[in-house]
Amino acid sequence: MAWLNKDDTFDPDSFHNKVLGIAAELGVHDSGVHHHAMGQLLFTHWGCIRITLAEAICLLPPTRIAWIPPELPHRAEVTGAVGYRSVYLDTAAIPDLPETVEVLEASPLLQAVLERIAMADFSTQWEQGPPANLLAVCLDELHQARSEPTVLPLPRDPRLRHLASQASHTLPPSLKLLADHTGASEKTISRIMRRETGMSYQQWRQQWRLIKAIEMLAEQNSLTTIAAALDFSSDSAFSTFFKSMTGLPPREYMADSGSRTAQR
To answer: Is the pTM here over 0.90, yes or no?
Structure first.
């Protein structure tokens, strides 16, 4: 394990172990676009991390886990204090891990196991004894973890490419306004979005609102402020939307990812 300061760099590919862990307490931080030969599990105790990919934006809320497959270019941005943990896995030695980026619900057991792995010495032998048991529990919990709706695929069509550049800041327009702006019909836009993102434009816009809401919650904004910024008619309308998307009210979602796990 390595404790990293803000300006430290770490290259997991320079080590020769199938599991590596690091930890840091970060403020504002931008990793820049990079990739590594090992797959990566990212975990935060508090604060959010925005992960930008070539064809998607991924938000990692506190006490959830993001899986980034090996060799995938990505950029991780932190805008506030984050308790950061990262576990790197050699997918050649550890098969059956996801092939795409995912954000996963983390049970209290998985959180505790990842914390132990992140604190392990770089020379730890993971093939036998307690380390092997720890890794086995981690992988079992990962395979059972439920996906979180905080990955937003981006359209590639030139008529909709501007949505990607706006996605970090500006509430996407309604379908009608988007059609007026691009000159494409609402049916054409809907067809493009289905083909390139796997969801309708309305579903895509709602997922964008959810991701932005989580970011604003992590920044301690009030429900009233968030509802107004995301064009909800009231606090209660926003809370109803949030619960329909995540299964939990906004504050409960941010407080403890173990709530739904314990209910199942």
So the answer is: no
Cα 51 from chain centroid (whole Å): 7
> Length of the chain, please?
264
The amino acid at 41: L
Distance CA 88, CA 179 (A): 43
pLDDT in tens, 147-200: 999 999 999 898 898 887 666 677 899 999 999 988 999 999 999 999 999 999
pLDDT value at residue 7: 66
Domains along the chain with CATH numbers: 2-144 (2.60.120.280), 156-263 (1.10.10.60)
The phi, psi pair for 58, rounded to 5°, reads -125, 130
Longest dimension (CA), the chain: 63
Per-residue model confidence as pLDDT tens digits over 226-253: 999 999 999 999 999 999 999 999 999 9
